[in-house]
């Protein structure tokens, strides 16, 4: 393995820009929800299902793409994913019904899943351990810009065209990533050769699930990220519907949460020079659970948007310190099947999040319902953290 210092900044930025595709696909069209609903003759609540569909399709894409990436190489899977994503985006710009919108989002998400699952594997091919945690943090610092600017980009596009222009922009962005990756990440000889072990796709996934010490990390990531998925799904309702904010103010309020994630990600990068990933994950997860309780208070006692915002920023911000360290610790167990392992985690993270988001449509459309789901995710995150610590203690005891 190489050290982080030997990996060029060009590669870091290229991987970061590629990671931005997922947040762009979810957040750029959020300001267009009212326009999409009006154009298709449906409610905003129905349009929000397109986020749930994307998250669930993304998990399918990751699950199918992970083992293929381990077997046939990162380059083929990543390039194919970008092409599928782009084609689906151009299709979405022309849809005229909610059914076609959901179908297009499903196809788009599968391409996005194939793209997303390749990034952690490409990192694991190059570095491991503490260096991997730092690398994930560096990529996160680049990619986290996407959800901060995505709603603003979407709002700007709506000023010059209809909502279909948002999807045209997404498809064009995916195509622009191809030459960037070719000139940086895929420059020179292939970094990941075809697997000679003859292990089947199913065997790879079974092997991941048979690693008891790694299982807590899968659900820990899914739970901690699930609350953010719930927030993103209902962000338009929360800020524009419940708190009555304008489209421009919605963009600002949404960006505040992403700024918090960026700040915590940067802080995590600095803390890794003094502390181990396990220590940082513990503190960040406890802070996230506290934020979940504050959000419940905000809904129960009818706080203003300026009382709700700091609590939401704390919840979202902690992910900047939780996710990179969980991923680095988790992939330590899978040096030869990192893409398959990443696919399992991604499937749990986005699949369970998408399912929870879809099921939340059965609840009353209220702030209390949304923040109750977010708080439940925070409690689940703490439970998985304790599960992980118990598992680590048992492993240490057996070793001694």
From TrEMBL:
The chain crosses the membrane at residues 7-26, 32-56, 77-95, 101-123, 135-157, 163-185, 214-237, 249-268, 366-388. Keywords: Cell inner membrane, Cell membrane, Membrane, Transmembrane, Transmembrane helix, Transport. GO terms for biological process: xenobiotic detoxification by transmembrane export across the plasma membrane. Pfam families: MFS_1. It is a multi-pass membrane protein. It is found in: Cell inner membrane; Cell membrane. It comes from the Bacteria. Residues 11-400 form the Major facilitator superfamily (MFS) profile domain. One of its GO terms (molecular function) is xenobiotic transmembrane transporter activity. SUPFAM superfamilies: MFS general substrate transporter (SSF103473). GO terms for cellular component: plasma membrane. Its main location: membrane. Belongs to the major facilitator superfamily. Bcr/CmlA family. This is Bcr/CflA family efflux transporter. It comes from Sediminihaliea albiluteola.
């Amino acid at each position: 393995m190489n050290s982080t210092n030997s990996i060029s900044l060009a590669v870091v930025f290229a991987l970061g820009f590629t990671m931005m595709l997922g947040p762009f696909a979810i957040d750029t069209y959020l300001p267009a929800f009212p326009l999409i609903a009006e154009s298709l003759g449906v409610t905003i609540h129905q349009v929000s299902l397109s986020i749930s569909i994307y998250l669930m399709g993304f998990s399918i894409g990751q699950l199918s793409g992970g083992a293929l990436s381990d077997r046939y190489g990162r380059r083929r899977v990543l390039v194919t994913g970008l092409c599928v994503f782009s084609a689906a985006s151009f299709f979405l710009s022309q849809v005229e019904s909610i059914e076609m919108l959901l179908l297009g989002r499903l196809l788009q998400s599968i391409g996005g899943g194939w793209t997303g699952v390749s990034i952690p594997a490409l990192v694991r091919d190059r570095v491991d351990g503490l260096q991997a945690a730092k690398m994930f943090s560096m990529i996160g610092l680049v990619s986290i810009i996407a959800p901060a600017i995505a709603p603003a980009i979407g709002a700007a596009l709506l000023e010059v065209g209809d909502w279909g222009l948002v999807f045209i922009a997404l498809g064009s962005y995916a195509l622009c990533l191809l030459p960037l990756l070719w000139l940086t990440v895929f420059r020179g000889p292939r970094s990941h050769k075809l697997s000679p072990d003859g292990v089947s796709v199913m065997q790879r996934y079974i092997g991941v699930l048979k690693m008891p010490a790694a299982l807590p990390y899968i659900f820990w990531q899914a739970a901690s990220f699930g609350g953010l998925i719930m927030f993103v799904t209902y962000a338009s309702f929360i800020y524009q519907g419940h708190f009555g904010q304008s489209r421009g103010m919605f963009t600002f309020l949404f960006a505040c949460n992403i700024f918090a994630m960026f700040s915590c990600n940067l802080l995590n990068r600095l803390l890794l020079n003094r502390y181990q990933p396990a220590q940082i994950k513990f503190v960040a997860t406890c802070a996230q659970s506290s934020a979940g309780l504050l959000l419940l208070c905000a809904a129960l006692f009818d706080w203003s948007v300026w009382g709700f915002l700091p609590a939401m920023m704390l919840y979202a911000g902690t992910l900047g310190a939780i996710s990179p360290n969980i991923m680095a610790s988790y992939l330590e167990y899978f040096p030869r099947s990192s893409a398959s392992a990443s696919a399992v985690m991604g499937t749990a993270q986005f699949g369970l999040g998408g399912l929870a988001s879809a099921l939340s449509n059965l609840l009353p459309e209220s702030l209390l319902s949304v923040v109750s789901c977010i708080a439940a995710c925070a409690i689940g995150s703490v439970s998985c953290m304790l599960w992980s610590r118990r598992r680590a203690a048992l492993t240490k005891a057996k070793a001694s």
